[in-house]
Amino acid sequence: IYLKSREVLGEPVEARFGKDFPIRFDLLDTMQGGNLSLQVHPSLDYAREQFGLHYTQEESYYLLDAGEDASVYLGLKTGVDSSAMIRELKRANQDDSAPFDAERYVNLLPARKHDHYLIPSGTIHCSGKNALVLEISATPNLYTFKLWDWGRLGLDGKPRPINIERGEKVIRWERDTCFVKNELVNRFELVASGDGWSEERTGLYETQFIETRRHRFTKTVTHHTGNSVNVLNLVEGDEVVVESPTGAFEPFVVHYAETFIVPAAVGTYTVEPCGKSAGRECITIKALVRH
Q1: Secondary structure (DSSP) of 142-155
Q2: Residues near 247 by beta carbon (within 8 Å), at least 6 away in sequence
Q3: Could you give the 3-state DSSP secondary structure of residue 92?
Q4: For the segment 235-289, what is each residue's pLDDT rounded down to a tens digit?
Q5: Are strands 221-224 and 268-273 parallel, antiparallel or unpaired?
Q6: How many CB atoms are closer than 10 A to CB 276?
Q7: Distance CA 230, CA 264 (A)
Q8: pTM score > 0.85 for this model?
Q9: DSSP readout, 162-176?
């Protein structure tokens, strides 16, 4: 990134982010485990004023896999009393015998494979148990305000850090049940299709700089970087081959759940099912920077 930032990121992205790589894919695995920490990310204004950041952590959850009882906590229930909720959070974190009743205040949504949940900053969230989440996010990951950790202890035998004082200042209380269902859950929109492939826009939310696209394909599908670095993951299928129509790079094979990066300078490239996946439907999720 330091030596080839323009070629990797694309000129518009480099102009905005400099030597920062702005997109991160990571896996959150709660299969046969417990809920992640209930948390919220700061707004851009708060991150700038408090920490000197020029962008904040916006993200989404894409479900790579999910058990029958998998779920996602997202947004607040309609009509929540904010003062009561903060009071209960503080009490629960001070008294081990009085756990926080998250489902009283936070929406608990069933999670299914290939669901996509958008999580703009200021939205309370966490993955529930028995889910394998592909988290697609912006990269300044230094400031996450955890509100409740289900009474768990860290490896040192002490409760892990909680920051309700900062968290309550950035929670968007208007992001209630109706908002979440209408704006943040499975916002799929077909934008293009061809012989053996289709492309869907899947988000992210309008305040977020990351654009995500989902491709379903049984044959070769052509991609264009759009003068932005592309980050992709194979979310369905055993393996695909990524190639340059002009031979600009050597073909390489990607397997299920692997993430790969295509530099902006590549321009046009193709993705095609291969090996055990030849002739079968594969699915990729792709993220790029809007500009």
Answers
A1: T--EEEE-TT-B-T
A2: none
A3: helix
A4: 999 999 999 999 999 999 999 999 999 999 999 999 999 999 999 999 999 999 9
A5: antiparallel
A6: 12
A7: 7
A8: yes
A9: --HHHHHHH--TT--
